[in-house]
Specification:
This protein is an alpha/beta fold and 516 residues long. It has helices at 76-85, 132-142, 157-168, 174-181, 208-220, 242-252, 282-292, 294-309, 343-358, 390-397, and strands at residues 2-4, 24-32, 46-48, 70-71, 74-75, 89-92, 116-117, 125-126, 145-150, 192-195, 231-234, 258-265, 316-324, 363-369, 379-382, 385-388, 405-407, 409-413, 415-418, 421-424, 426-432, 438-444, 451-458, 466-470, 490-491, 495-498, 501-506, 511-515. The strands form 7 sheets. An 8-stranded parallel barrel has the order 3-6-9-10-11-12-13-14, surrounded by 5 helices. A 6-stranded mixed sheet has the order 1-18-2-23-27-26, with no helix packed on it. A 6-stranded antiparallel sheet has the order 17-21-22-28-24-25, covered by helices on one side.
């Protein structure tokens, strides 16, 4: 048994139904609501939509003339699903695509917009029918904060400056008047701008110092027009590149509001990503969950470097690309990064969200990759059909954490062990919302055993508990167009109050959200 640090905890969970195997004993949790922590920024539940595969075309956008029911070209079924998800922020147009995207190609009458080759993702022709107006109007329709990534890799400072003016200026100026000519009188509100993407790789193969110098230059021309105030996100490191963070913080911390971090959960089978999204054994289950837990190390160590140059934590750590990345779905297009989404991915989502919430003082935005039909998607579409993934359901279940105040946890937990490998068995996080309700979420990593958790609640006057659980009979359970409800939340009855204490029996391979 081991004692885990407050706010980020791991415990073993129990099966949804009565398991033939005995529950693992001995887990305990202490929640102290008398010492509230920082607010969990709702943007931790952000999304990412790149011009990649079928994320935009066929996912969000079908056009006004499509037989698929739509509103102004946006799929109605996707709109409804996303409204239910309360998406706070959406990153666009990339990703690697951002550093070859020239915004002027995506404005004006669609029929006259020039096409381009998407060299990063499949070599397909991009017709630019989904551009600045389509993206920002989509965000406005759903009440989502837009997060725009500008082109540093192949673009110019002038191009960036004029795009910001086009989107946000209300002056009688060239770019604002061009926007008006294209049908939008009032400017949009743009709160977040990323200055380039993965400049260490597809965004230009730059050194850290070269990018830092370029960031300072490009950032100078990200102007605030009128009441619109932009927070600038610098292109940060990939994975364990701590030298990149050190250089950026040393050279440009005073010029940035955020620093990005990218980390994808993969199997340990090398690059490009390998391993099936749906056909895996328990060793591969544990391998993926173990790899995703490295996010804790990454956030901790990059934050420690940031603390040296920014002890007041004015610069946010923005994890604007994260999630699982496996081999493509057999038969799908090369470069479209299509993969299924199983109960294992739901556990990955819950574990990462708990990590981000444990570091709410520094992590104020995260954007899972990606929105629809790509990598660890919320939604899958095929023609006029749509299905919600297990990851979607985790994000929906965890909505009460958005904008709530984090509450410290101390939890003891057995390990989940398979072969010679092991990880902590359960993760948990707690928060109090603006109405005073306390929510505690759990994620079980053990696919076979149940655990009863004895919970001590300090400063919580709850008299009743309710909840929902996401689990299934097998590790690789997933939703398909033929069986769209194989993995979805159900009422949870494994939590009981007894003499003021709370006992929770958590199902194996599951995610649980409780309301006290």
């Amino acid at each position: 048994m081991k004692l885990l640090r407050p706010l980020f905890v791991f415990v073993a969970l129990a099966a949804l139904f009565v398991s033939a195997r005995a529950a693992e004993p001995g887990a305990s949790l202490i929640l102290d609501a008398t010492k509230p922590g920082p607010v969990i920024n709702k943007n931790v539940y952000g999304q990412f939509a790149e011009h990649l595969g079928r994320c935009i075309y066929g996912g969000i956008w079908v056009g006004e003339d499509s037989k698929i029911p739509n509103t102004k070209g946006y799929r109605n079924d996707v709109i409804a699903a996303l409204k239910n998800l309360s998406v706070p922020v959406l990153r666009w147009p990339g990703g690697c695509f951002a550093d070859e995207y020239h915004w002027r190609d995506g404005i004006g009458p669609r029929a006259s917009r020039p096409a381009m080759i998407n060299t990063h993702w499949g070599g397909v022709v991009e017709n630019n029918h989904f551009g600045t107006h389509e993206f920002l109007d989509f965000c406005e329709l759903l009440g989502i904060e837009p997060y725009v990534c500008v082109n540093v890799g192949s673009g110019t400072v002038q191009e960036e400056m004029e795009w910001i003016e086009y989107m946000t200026s209300d002056a009688d100026s060239p770019m604002a008047n061009l926007r008006r000519k294209n049908g939008r009188d009032q400017p949009w509100k743009i709160k977040y701008v990323a200055v380039g993407n993965e400049s260490w790789g597809c965004g230009g193969n730059m050194t850290a110092q070269f990018y830092a110098d370029n960031y300072r230059r490009y950032n100078t021309f990200v102007k605030n027009y009128g009441a619109n105030k932009i927070q600038r996100i610098a292109g940060g490191p990939s994975d364990f590149n701590y030298e990149w963070t050190e250089t950026l913080m040393k050279s440009a911390a005073k010029q940035m509001n955020g620093l990005s971090l990218h980390y994808y959960t993969r199997t340990t089978m090398g690059w490009p990503p390998k391993g099936s999204a749906t056909e895996f054994d328990e060793a591969q289950w544990l391998n993926v969950l173990s790899n995703t837990l490295k996010m804790e190390e990454l956030v901790t160590k990059h934050s420690a470097i940031m603390d040296k140059y920014d002890p007041q934590k004015k610069v946010a750590l923005v994890v604007d690309e994260w999630g699982t990345w496996y081999a493509k779905t057999p038969g799908s297009h090369d470069g479209f990064l299509e993969q299924q989404n199983t109960l294992r991915d739901a556990l990955v989502a819950a574990l990462n969200l708990h990590i981000f919430q444990a570091h709410a003082d520094r992590v104020t935005m995260a954007n899972i990759a990606q929105f629809i039909n790509v990598l660890q998607a919320m939604i899958l579409t095929d023609g006029d059909k749509m299905v919600l993934t297990p990851t979607y359901h985790v994000f929906e279940m965890f909505k009460p954490h958005q904008g709530a105040t984090s509450l410290p946890l101390t939890l003891t937990s057995p390990d989940y062990t398979f072969g010679e490998n092991k990880i902590p068995a359960v993760s948990a996080s707690a928060s109090r919302d603006k109405d005073g309700k306390v929510h505690v979420s759990f994620a079980n990593t053990d696919p076979a055993k149940a655990i009863t958790v004895a919970c001590t609640l300090n400063g919580v006057m709850a008299k009743s508990v309710s909840g929902r659980v996401l689990t299934a009979g097998v590790m690789n359970a997933h939703n398909t167009f033929a069986a769209p409800h194989a993995v979805e939340p159900a009422a949870f009855t494994g939590a009981k109050f007894d003499g003021g204490s709370l006992t929770v029996t958590l199902p194996a391979k599951s995610v649980v959200m409780l309301e006290l």
